[in-house]
Specification:
Pfam families: ABC_tran (PF00005)
Number of strands: 10
Family: Belongs to the ABC transporter superfamily.
Keywords: Amino-acid transport, ATP-binding, Nucleotide-binding, Transport
Shape: globular
Largest sheet: 6 strands, mixed
Protein name: ABC transporter ATP-binding protein
GO molecular function, one term: ATP hydrolysis activity
Bound molecules: adenosine-5'-triphosphate
Number of domains: 2
Structural class: alpha/beta
Strand content: 25-35%
CATH topology of the largest domain: Rossmann fold
Length: 230
């Protein structure tokens, strides 16, 4: 589904990603773990063409997208739920959802999003900026789904949420997975990550230092490379 090979990304002269290679298989969830500042967001932004990589290959369903601008990557079927939600605070819930809608036969539409998140229906006329953190996260996920992605990237979806809301987000991700949507998730909450992952990657200073099925993600690796909440 998604193949990322030997990605090198820089901010100016700072070499951040040193040959990142990872993949997401059809219908599966891959998790990217790592301490703060290790390059997780940069990896997602490189895939999306937001922070283009200088070297490497990115393929979605066999189609090369490395070097494509962000709008083309998005059009090729990759959606993102960004870190910090990034919803439009001065647009209503409904407007937030409609701005990204890319109609697709049998794809997501407004009513599907409201069926999945009844709370967003209740708040459809409220300004995005007036929503709670949990509601904003629902809106951010809903907005990404409105692009009808074939693959979804989520950057720390549990960040800043209450334990109750984290459980809600886990439920939603499991639901989407069961519907066959492949996902690449950056996460700091280890309990959440391990409850969702089919495959785990650990990033350390821009290098993948663990790559394996979640059953093989061992305590030694965890202790060496992560300082995560459990
Ligand atoms: N716009 C930028 N300009 C320069 N350096 C940056 C920029 N964004 C990130 N960096 C640096 O790149 C490195 C990787 O950052 P990145 O945000 O990808 O890490 P991360 O693993 O996602 O961490 P976090 O969990 O804190 O978001 C860090 O050293 C960071 O300071």
């Amino acid at each position: 589904m998604l193949e990322v090979q030997n990605l090198h990304t820089y901010y100016g002269d700072s070499h951040i990603l040193h040959g990142v290679t990872l993949s997401v298989q059809k219908g599966s969830v891959s998790i990217l773990l790592g301490r703060n500042g290790m390059g997780k967001t940069t990896t997602l932004h490189s895939i999306m063409g937001i922070t283009p990589s200088k070297q490497g290959k990115i393929l979605i369903n066999g189609k090369e997208i490395q070097g494509e601008p962000n709008y083309k990557v998005s059009k090729s079927g990759i959606g993102i739920v960004p870190q910090g939600r990034r919803i439009f605070g001065n647009l209503t819930v409904k407007e937030n959802l409609l701005t990204t809608h890319r109609p697709y036969k049998d794809g997501w539409n407004l009513n599907d999003i409201y069926d999945m998140f009844p709370r967003l229906k209740e708040r459809e006329s409220s300004m995005g900026g007036n929503l709670s953190g949990g509601e904003q996260q629902m809106l951010s996920i809903g907005r990404a789904l409105m692009t009808n992605p074939k693959l979804l990237l989520l950057d720390e979806p549990s960040e800043g949420l209450s334990p109750l809301m984290v459980r809600e987000v886990i439920k939603i991700i499991i639901h989407l997975k069961n519907e066959g949507l492949p996902m690449l998730i950056v996460e700091q909450n280890l309990a959440m990550a391990t409850s969702l992952a089919d495959h785990v990657y650990v990033l350390n200073k821009g290098n993948i230092v663990f790559d394996g099925p979640s059953e093989e993600f061992d305590t030694a690796t965890r202790n060496k490379f992560l300082s995560l909440s459990s």
